Each structure stands twice: as C-alpha cells, then as structure tokens.
C-alpha cells in the first residue's frame, strides 16, 4: 500500500460564514480585532463568544456600546441525527438581539437558521452555515461588508416588471430622471 492509500480520510468541518457591517466601521474601526483573512478552527466543545472583553470573547468588537459578552454561539448535533447546528444566545442585559424576525432578550437562545441576519444596535451580521462532517471542531470564516446587509437583501428591483413581461414606455430608461406631471393633465 502507498502512503496515499494509508492516509486517513479527510473530513470537512462545518463552517459558519459571518459577514459583518456597521455604518461607522471606516471611522471607528470596531472590527479591527477580527480576522477577516482566514478560516479559524474552533473546538466543538467551546462556546464562540462575541463582545468587547478580549479576556473572555474569542471575537472582539472594539466599541464601548457593545456588551462585554454580546452573544455566544454553541455548536451541537441534533438528538438522533447526524445534522450539526448552532445555537445563538443573547448575553447582553442592555441590548436585544434579533435573529431574522426573532427578538432575543437577555439569556434567551434559539437555533441559528442556515442563513439569517443577526442584528443588535447598528450591527448587522449575515450568518450562513456550510455543512461539514467533523465532530471535533467547526470553522468560522469572517467577511466585511461595505454596504448594509439589510439594505442589500431587501432592496426592491429598481425597474418594475409589468405583468405581461414586456417593458413599457411608461417607465423611464435607466439613467434618465422621471418626469413629473400633474394627474389632471392629459
């Protein structure tokens, strides 16, 4: 047998992709302690904590308005299943945490959906879970957004599509300003 044949089977890790946005990031650099370049391994039995206390939190946000521990993520496997999930818990007594439409008060927790937006204060975090097989660890991969996540996901199409599927001359061409008319004019 060759060394290739004897090598252990490589297993993939569940990866939590998190895209961070704050309107004052360019001025205040509150994400300067986060590692946006590489994936980071976290042991499965560790709780991933986010907040401003660098002695307790693995992911530090440099902002006095953020709680010492803002929220935590716990990796777990569902009972009688091979599916891995994350549970998010609000650790802030001052600030409510919103996961999509669910508002969490202090010490409230919920399962993190496979794709969701986490909000607290002016912070917006898009969280997306990429499935893996490892039971020993998971990975985090952090990204920085230049535009608001909520705005990016909720913007309606700029050009309305008519019911018949064809473009009408009622809508101005792109790049031109709309012409204001009085509804009583013919």
Automatic annotation (TrEMBL):
InterPro entries: FHA_dom, SMAD_FHA_dom_sf, TIFA. GO terms for cellular component: cytoplasm. Its main location: cytoplasm. One of its GO terms (biological process) is positive regulation of canonical NF-kappaB signal transduction. Keywords: Cytoplasm, Immunity, Innate immunity. Residues 158-186 are annotated as: Disordered. Residues 158-171 have a biased composition (Polar residues). It is found in: Cytoplasm. Belongs to the TIFA family. This is TRAF-interacting protein with FHA domain-containing protein A. It comes from Scopus umbretta (Hammerkop). The gene is Tifa.
């Amino acid at each position: 047998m060759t060394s290739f044949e004897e090598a252990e089977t490589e297993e993939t890790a569940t990866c939590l992709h998190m895209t961070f946005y704050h309107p004052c990031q360019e001025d205040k650099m509150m994400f300067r302690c986060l590692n946006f370049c590489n994936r980071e391994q976290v042991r499965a039995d560790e709780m991933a904590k986010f907040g401003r206390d660098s002695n307790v939190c693995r992911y530090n946000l440099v902002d006095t308005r953020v709680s010492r521990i803002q929220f935590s993520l716990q990796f777990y496997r569902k009972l009688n299943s091979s599916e891995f999930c994350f549970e998010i818990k609000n650790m802030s007594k001052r600030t409510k945490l919103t996961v999509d439409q669910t508002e969490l008060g202090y010490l409230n927790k919920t399962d993190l959906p496979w794709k969701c937006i986490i909000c607290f204060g002016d912070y917006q975090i898009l969280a997306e879970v990429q499935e893996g097989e490892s039971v020993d660890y998971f990975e985090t991969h952090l990204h920085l957004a230049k535009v608001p996540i909520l705005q990016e996901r909720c913007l309606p199409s700029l050009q309305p599509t008519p019911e018949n599927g064809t473009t009408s001359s009622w809508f101005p061409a792109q790049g031109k300003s709309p012409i204001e008319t009085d509804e009583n004019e013919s």
